Amino acid sequence: IWQEILDVVEEKMGKPTVEAFLKPSRAIINKEDNKLTLIVPNEFIKTYIEQKSGKLKNIIEDILEGENLKLSLEVDESIGNLSQEEYLENNNKVEKNEQKGFLSKYTFETFVVGPGNRMAHAASLAVADNPGKAYNPLFIYGGAGLGKTHLLQAIATTIRSKKPNLYILYITSEKFTNEFINAIKDDKINSFQEHYRNIDILLVDDIQFIAGKERTQEEFFHTFNTLYESGKQIVLSSDRPPKEIRTLEERLRTRFEMGLIADIQPPDLETRIAILQKKAEIENIDIDPEALVLIAEKVASNIRELEGVLTKSMALCSINQESRITIKHAQEALKNIEDNKLNNLPTMDEIAIAVSKVMQIKLEDLKSRGRKSHQANARQIAMYLCREMTKNSLPQIGEYFGRDHSTVIHAYERIKEDINKDQTLKRIIEQIRSFLKSV
Ligand code: ADP
Ligand code: MG
């Protein structure tokens, strides 16, 4: 049936459409729920198939109807260069094959180096070239969407291609925590430990999330030591440096600081332009340089968002059946995002939750009378953000936190002043803002 789809689409819409949109995709048929799932390599293709006046989608659905199948679309960026057969095979092995977690588009070739990430990049390359011997552990930290996951995956992919016999595990700290909890629940701690202690290269993404989880930290401490002592490479990422991860056990903090700590700072304009150019080149996108610069100028602090605007511009361009992204598409895409932001003002509850998550403090402590300095600080930050990000009045904000409005003014003034002097404070506030964006 897949071949039939390819043939019919080629006949009705021409070979380029097939080459560009269907050849990179994979089809999985599930007879049980009468579904054909089309796995496509990126959001852009998904949008294209769904929109494009519905034409491509209609053609496919017509064919499927004859077989009594429904169409569903999914994005899986890891399909990369796998053929239809390889993809199916991989998919059957599924989950157990950890290697599948590597996203092939996150490589060193696609990573653009600039002043903000030069050191993290160089350290990652060194580790990929010489695992266990260059820097151990390598600890990379930086704000959301600045390329931490990209670098970890690039290290994993590089080592895997050079030394296919090594057991490489990329995992998020949340997944590690869940696996550990399940192992306890199912009484499989021994096999959990054995599994983790046989790893040659361990890459743990977003390690800050093990903060506050005592037993997970304890387990991770032992895993870390076992691997470290036998010279195995460990790479960690976090949104902040070890010394700023609260409720992280001291002995773990010390371990994390034993190797190299490299930070990633937001990209400057030139780097942002270079990233967009690279992306356009990889995905074969035709874009006006003017449009590209406009996007790079407007989206400054998060590369994921930068890519998002490019994708959005592409979608707008293809919906209008145009072949080149111009300043018009870029403006429209940026406006869309602005509108979303304006209409999606966070609520005070959302701000409070974000502050409590990022600053690792209990929600109720934000409203309590507690005077511990970390609590008071978090409370002032929350008030500041409520003043900056919502339309609530000072008395309303005061009431929410159980204080009067002069306390709110005081908090607002203090944070506003300190934010320019205090890098840590500045970074915390950026983290809270990106947390709010991500939910
Ligand atoms: P983080 O893990 O730090 O939140 P990611 O690694 O997920 O960020 O990066 C977000 C997006 O930005 C990804 O699509 C990634 O490929 C892209 N990206 C980040 N840094 C770069 C870079 N220096 N060059 C090219 N793309 C980048
Ligand atoms: Mg990440």
From TrEMBL:
Residues 134-262 form the AAA+ ATPase domain. SMART domains: AAA (SM00382), Bac_DnaA_C (SM00760). Residues 1-99 are annotated as: Domain I, interacts with DnaA modulators. It comes from the Bacteria. InterPro entries: AAA+_ATPase (IPR003593), Chromosome_initiator_DnaA (IPR001957), Chromosome_initiator_DnaA-like (IPR020591), Chromosome_initiator_DnaA_CS (IPR018312), DnaA_C (IPR013159), DnaA_dom (IPR013317), DnaA_N_dom (IPR024633), DnaA_N_sf (IPR038454). Keywords: ATP-binding, Cytoplasm, DNA replication, DNA-binding, Lipid-binding, Nucleotide-binding. Residues 347-415 form the Chromosomal replication initiator DnaA C-terminal domain. GO terms for cellular component: cytoplasm; plasma membrane. Residues 318-439 are annotated as: Domain IV, binds dsDNA. It is found in: Cytoplasm. NCBIfam families: DnaA. HAMAP family: DnaA_bact. Domain I is involved in oligomerization and binding regulators, domain II is flexibile and of varying length in different bacteria, domain III forms the AAA+ region, while domain IV binds dsDNA. Belongs to the DnaA family. Plays an essential role in the initiation and regulation of chromosomal replication. ATP-DnaA binds to the origin of replication (oriC) to initiate formation of the DNA replication initiation complex once per cell cycle. Binds the DnaA box (a 9 base pair repeat at the origin) and separates the double-stranded (ds)DNA. Forms a right-handed helical filament on oriC DNA; dsDNA binds to the exterior of the filament while single-stranded (ss)DNA is stabiized in the filament's interior. This is Chromosomal replication initiator protein DnaA. It comes from Thermodesulfobium narugense DSM 14796. The lineage of its organism: Bacteria, Pseudomonadati, Thermodesulfobiota, Thermodesulfobiia, Thermodesulfobiales. The gene is dnaA.
